[in-house]
Amino acid sequence: MKTGLGATMARAGRRLLSSLPALFGVLVFTFLLMRVLPGDPAVFFASGPNAGKEEIEQIRKQMGLDKSVPEQLVFYLSDIGRGNLGRSMMTGQPVLKDLRERLPASLELTFTALLIALIFAVPLGVVAALRPGSAVDHGVRLFCALGVCVPTFVSGLLLIYVFYYLLGLAPDPTGRIDVFTSLPPSRTGFLSIDFLLAGDVEGWWAACKQLILPAVSMALFVIAPLARITRASMLVSLGSDFVRTARSVGLSWHKVVVTYALRNAILPVITIAGIVFSTMLGANVLVEKVFSWPGVASYALDALLSSDYAPVQGFVLLMASLFVLVNLVVDICYGIADPRVSIG
Asked: CA-CA distance, 287 to 337, in Å (whole number)?
């Protein structure tokens, strides 16, 4: 009988297999949804409504739109099975190549924003739980409410106005790196890491300066749910019998809070962090647009506006796959944080 990490990985594998029907459903639903949206992509890519019929029909044939919807679906699923996500009419490149080039930018932005959010949210939630009903608690709850109410594009524009326009502390919000900095050899796709691997400290600092404002814009919006769940979990944990027992045997308050209360309260935080990460990755399109960040979300939005089917379908499949993987990672982290938890 498998125990420990082996059992956890075996259950994770079964969980992955059970998610395949859901991914298939996402594929079919997205395909059908794109076909019922108004507008003819062949007209859009044929230089507008004044294009000739022959040109439009040629593009329709090139995009496979001359076939019936069931035939298109069969060909699409066949291509997916071979790892072919189609070709983007906007860029002229395979969708898989476009997503591969843009995904590291989105992941770097999302990971950084989530890290910033956790660094601030967990201490805020713990402090608020340790002093419930106090001015600190009310201040944290007010800050969380403001974070949820302010949209990411509004906070992004405010940050640009203050730190770039007024103070001049931030660089131009025009992408991942300024035009005067040479790119490092691509190893991970994360510029902040690639610059370090190349030993280019100035380039690393330039990449970090470009990253800070968009990451903070995203972090401000997700600090609220993370801080709230941390506060609620800590309140439950601090009122538990094991905490009272630990205090009664004379353990220091710091050890009781960190070793016992926080470790038991961290499980819901891990769950929310996984959900928040998946949401941020797909919903950061406004931040990417405000800061001209070349990520997959802005790429999918441009494709949607131009009725370019293949990139949108590829983006949705990518997000669904990442959501499944993130859930598996969360389940494994559950087992690490508390071995009593089963993901079966």
From this structure: 33
The pLDDT tens digits of the residues spanning 71-94 come to 888 888 888 888 888 888 888 888
Average pLDDT score over residue span 8-33: 75
Contacting residues for 296 by C-beta, under 8 A, at least 6 apart: 99, 102, 103, 105, 106, 315, 318
Q: For the segment 219-263, what is each residue's pLDDT rounded down to a tens digit?
A: 988 888 898 888 888 888 888 877 788 777 777 777 778 777 887
Contact 175, 207 (CB under 8 A): no
Label residue 208 by pLDDT band (50, 70, 90): very high
DSSP letter assigned to residue 94: B
Do residues 269 and 226 touch, judged by C-beta distance below 8 A? Answer: yes
Distance (Å, rounded) from C-alpha 97 to C-alpha 88?
10
Residue 161 exposed, middle or buried by CB count within 10 Å (0-12, 13-18, 19+): exposed
Residues facing residue 94 across a β-bridge: 87
DSSP 121: H
Measured between alpha carbons, how far is 192 from 184 in angstroms, rounded to an integer?
A: 10
**Exposure string for 76-92, b = 16+ CB within 10 A, e = fewer:** beeebeeeebbbbbbbe
Q: Report the length, in residues, of the chain.
A: 344
Average of pLDDT values for 325-333? 75
What pLDDT sits at residue 110? 92
The pTM score is: 0.82
CA distance 104 to 83: 19
Question: What pLDDT shows up at residue 337?
Answer: 59
d(CA 49, CA 42): 10
- Residue/partner pairs of 51-59 with CB below 8 Å, 24 or more apart: 59/89
Torsion of Cα atoms, 188 then 190 then 196 then 200, to 10°? 110
Give the separation between CA 310 and CA 299, rounded to whole angstroms.
Answer: 11
